[in-house]
Amino acid sequence: MSEAVAEYPRITRRTLHEEVLERLRDMIIEGRLEPGQRINEGQVGAQLGVSRTPLREAIKTLASEGLVEILPAKGAIVRKFTAKDLAQILQVLKTLEQLGGRMACELASDATIQAINGLHERMLALYKSNNRLEYFKLNQAIHSAIVAASGNPVLMEMHETLQARIKRLRFIGNEGPQKWAGAVAEHEEMMAALLKRDADALLDVIGRHMESTRLRVADVF
Amino acid sequence: MSEAVAEYPRITRRTLHEEVLERLRDMIIEGRLEPGQRINEGQVGAQLGVSRTPLREAIKTLASEGLVEILPAKGAIVRKFTAKDLAQILQVLKTLEQLGGRMACELASDATIQAINGLHERMLALYKSNNRLEYFKLNQAIHSAIVAASGNPVLMEMHETLQARIKRLRFIGNEGPQKWAGAVAEHEEMMAALLKRDADALLDVIGRHMESTRLRVADVF
DNA sequence: ATTCTCCTTGCTGTAGACAGAGATCGAAAG
DNA sequence: CTTTCGATCTCTGTCTACAGCAAGGAGAAT
To answer: What value, to the nearest 5°, has the Cα angle with vertex A218 and ends B101 and A25?
Structure first.
């Protein structure tokens, strides 16, 4: 047996609780499970065609990620976020993204930055064609990609966790053409700064972007 | 029923998986479960007097916290951290702690800062009496307290998670009188800056403290 | 002696069962 | 009519059982 064959040992056997975890995360982010709603293990398990064991394991992970809250002897409920929660999350998110942005300006390859620019272009197209759902997904992907360009997986992980918490809020909060235009303008600025590798400018835009996100989403409450 | 009675609804029924979670975390941090070691569910469960179900739930949470790694069909192993991992974690930790420090300078009450100073004094006493274990615990507590003084629980949570990952490394890495003295000196500086609410100075010390932590711990690898 | 194959053994992944806590609804007392 | 107590029922928390994968060793073939 040659050694070339064993090059990619990532066979990734997917277990049920992994599968369930993703499904639940999606259900929460898509709003199929509403904030405050209790997760009935029997019901959801039946719905997913899975016994309670892997379901419960997935719920424990979601709790650790901060997407659900576990009330002993009462079960798990989808976590509700207040305006204060949002502000606190965005503050940390801002800091993390600024760190990612600075490192990206310093360390990322031109190819990486070009790839991010590609995402940005595609996002603009979706904006013009008024495809809000796909626009939103790409928007999130761009933020993640900037952080990923830092080359620090720990930073990515923390960023991803926090981003997931407020993904839903961001989606339903950013409604309306005026808000949308504002967000796009900020993204234009971000991209311009990143292309110039101008860290100071990038950090500044990211800071303002987070603050205006907070204001835009605040209407939800 | 008056409303005063319901003031503290935190009866905190402790479930088994919560209990197990804490125990496992301690076992990993204390080194009773060594990095790379497989966690045999039957064995550990028997040792803790608990069936596999709550144990597995706790393991899922630990995986989400980044303390163990789950290999499908092979079980969980205590995560091994490389020098690179350490550097990446410390980089994020530095950023988070700097954010916490800046906010603490701006927002914390005098009482809070005095409380942190109290911890610091006690830590110095432990240094002089050469009580390394208790010194270490207080050291960690001080870092946490500074971040807590920011008043941002999300920030605390992220900080706590990352701190837990490298707690063990920090403990075994900071051995030796010279390293110890250096760490204490940095803490002195931090405390002085905090007492003066001099954010710039505090951020600077925190940055240097993290870097020297990295160097001190690097010998472990 | 080496390698391949098959078997055995141990452990994980999942399902199902059981006990106990909480919630709900109705009835009785004020 | 309101309130309180109690019975019932649902759902969670935990345990146990079972199936299937993985690793390791024994034996046979080369």
So the answer is: 85
Alpha helices by DSSP H, listed for A81-109, are 83-107
Which residues on chain A are in Cβ contact (under 8 Å) with B158? 92, 158, 162
| B11, two tokens | 């009866």
Give pLDDT, residue B6.
Answer: 41
Strand C and B42 CB separated by under 7 Å: yes
Poorest-confidence range of B14-18, B22-26, B105-109, B174-178?
Answer: B174-178
pLDDT band at B10 (very low <50, low <70, confident <90, very high): low
Q: Which of A190, A185, A188 is nearest to A149 (CA)?
A: A190
DSSP character at residue B6:
G
The predicted-structure confidence for A61-115, as pLDDT tens digits, reads as follows 999 999 999 999 999 999 999 999 999 999 999 999 999 999 999 999 999 999 9
Round to a whole number and report the distance in Å from the CA of B59 to the C1' of D24.
27
- C-alpha closest to that of B217 among B184, B177, B168: B168
Any alpha helices (H) in chain B, and if so which ranges?
16-29, 41-48, 52-65, 83-107, 110-128, 132-148, 153-173, 177-195, 199-218
Reported as a single tens digit per residue, the pLDDT across B160-199 is: 999 999 999 999 988 889 999 999 999 999 999 999 999 9
Helix, strand, or coil (residue B75): strand
Whether residue A3 is predicted with pLDDT greater than 60 in this model: the reply is no
Contact flag, residue A48 CB and nucleic strand C, below 7 A: no
**Chain B residues with at least one Cβ partner in A under 8 Å:** 12-15, 17-18, 53, 56-58, 60-61, 63-66, 72-73, 85, 88-89, 91-92, 95-96, 99, 152-155, 157-158, 162
Task: For the full predicted model, state whether its pTM sits above 0.70.
Answer: yes
CA distance B29 to B165: 8
B12 touches A72 (CB < 8 A): yes
A16 touches strand C (CB under 7 A): yes
Query: Is the predicted pLDDT of residue A166 greater than 70, yes or no?
Result: yes
Express the helix, strand and coil content of chain A in percent, nearest 5 each.
70, 5, 25
Tell the residue number behind the tokens 């409604």, with chain if given: A175
Q: Distance between CA A197 and CA B30 in Å, rounded?
A: 44
Cβ burial of A84 (10 Å; 0-12, 13-18, 19+) is exposed
Reported as a pLDDT band with limits 50, 70 and 90, residue A10 is: low
